[in-house]
Amino acid sequence: MYLYISYADEDAASGNRLKGLLKPVTRDFGFTTWSKQEVTPGGLWQQEMALHLKEALVFVPVMSADHLASDRCQAETTAALRLERRGQLKIVCVLLRPVCLEFSPLEHALLLPERNKPITRWRNQDEAWMQVQYGILDVIKRLQIR
Question: Domains plus CATH for the chain?
Answer without folding.
Answer: 2-145 (3.40.50.10140)
